[in-house]
């Protein structure tokens, strides 16, 4: 089993749709979780941290499920500009080193 | 917010030559920086953790004599790809974190696209 696993997609959705991604992680003692966005041939950029109680930032909602060891990202009212690869990042166990998932590709079409 | 400056953004070199990539933290000190490599349509793979004033920690399978890392100051880490070969062609990215704390994310440099011909 990979340490941080994501469905690579692509998820192909129309504008205005709601889309959700999940990411599973292997180490139950992990404490820090993040979602990053990466555009083609660019560096990843932090989208949001994921808090234990879940958190929301505009159209984006992140959730953590410790019992099942996964985090999720929900995007409401998708925009064309949301098209990108979304990377799940976990500091596995007590490590300060971030481990990346493979990324989930999102394509929002008109 | 925190900014990490990386250059060059793109480099083409001949087989057998060496290439140096610089990563600077602007307006903050980074005792630790991370170097990643990303092949097309694949995830970022950690190559090494660069520690200021001490030797870098390399991931399994990464040759330390081929990928030389120097972290001589709190704001600068360099990665030198020595005797580059075409299979070293990849996207190299560095990252650092401005502040500690479990919910503080990492800032990435803009990446260096290396092509070895």
Task: List the defining traits of the structure above.
heterodimer; A: 110 residues; mainly beta; 6-stranded mixed beta sheet; 5-stranded antiparallel beta sheet; 11 strands; 0% helix; globular; B: 117 residues; 7-stranded mixed beta sheet; 4-stranded antiparallel beta sheet
Give a verbal description of the structure:
The complex is a heterodimer of chains A (110) and B (117). Chain A has 110 residues and is mainly β. Chain A has no helices and eleven strands. Chain A has strands spanning 4-6, 11-14, 19-25, 32-38, 45-49, 55-57, 60-65, 70-75, 84-91, 98-100, 104-109. In chain A, strands 2, 4, 5, 9, 10 and 11 form a six-stranded mixed sheet that branches. A five-stranded antiparallel sheet of chain A has the order 1-3-8-7-6, with no helix packed on it. In chain A, a hairpin with a 2-residue loop joins β6 and β7 (60-65). Chain A is globular. The mean pLDDT of chain A is 93. Chain B is an all-beta fold and 117 residues long. Helices cover 0% and strands 51% of the residues of chain B. Chain B has no helices and eleven strands. Chain B has strands at 3-7, 10-13, 19-26, 32-38, 45-51, 57-58, 67-73, 76-81, 90-96, 107-108, 112-116. In chain B, strands 2, 4, 5, 6, 9, 10 and 11 form a seven-stranded mixed sheet that branches. In chain B, strands 1-3-8-7 form a four-stranded antiparallel sheet, with no helix packed on it. The mean pLDDT of chain B is 91. Chains A and B meet through β4, β5, β9 and β10 of A and β4, β5, β9 and β10 of B.
């Amino acid at each position: 089993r990979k340490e941080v696993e994501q469905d690579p997609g692509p998820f192909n959705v129309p504008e205005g749709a709601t889309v959700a991604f999940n990411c599973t992680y292997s180490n139950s003692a992990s404490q820090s979780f993040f979602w990053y966005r990466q555009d083609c041939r660019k560096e990843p950029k932090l989208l949001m941290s994921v808090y234990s109680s879940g958190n929301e930032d505009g159209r984006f909602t992140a959730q953590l499920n410790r019992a099942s060891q996964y985090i999720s990202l929900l995007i409401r009212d998708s925009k064309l500009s949301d098209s990108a690869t979304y990377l799940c990042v976990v500091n596995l166990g007590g490590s300060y080193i971030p481990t990346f998932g493979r990324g989930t590709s999102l394509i929002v079409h008109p | 917010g925190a900014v990490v400056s990386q250059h060059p953004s793109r480099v083409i070199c001949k087989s057998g030559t060496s290439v140096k990539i610089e990563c600077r933290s602007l307006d903050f000190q980074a005792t630790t920086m991370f170097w990643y490599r990303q092949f097309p349509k694949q995830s970022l793979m950690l190559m090494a953790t660069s520690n200021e004033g001490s030797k870098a920690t390399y991931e399994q399978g990464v040759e330390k004599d081929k990928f030389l890392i120097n972290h001589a100051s709190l704001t600068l880490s360099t990665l030198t790809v020595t005797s580059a070969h075409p299979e070293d062609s990849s996207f190299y990215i560095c990252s650092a974190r401005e502040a500690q704390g479990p919910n503080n994310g990492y800032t990435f440099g803009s990446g260096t696209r290396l092509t070895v011909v």
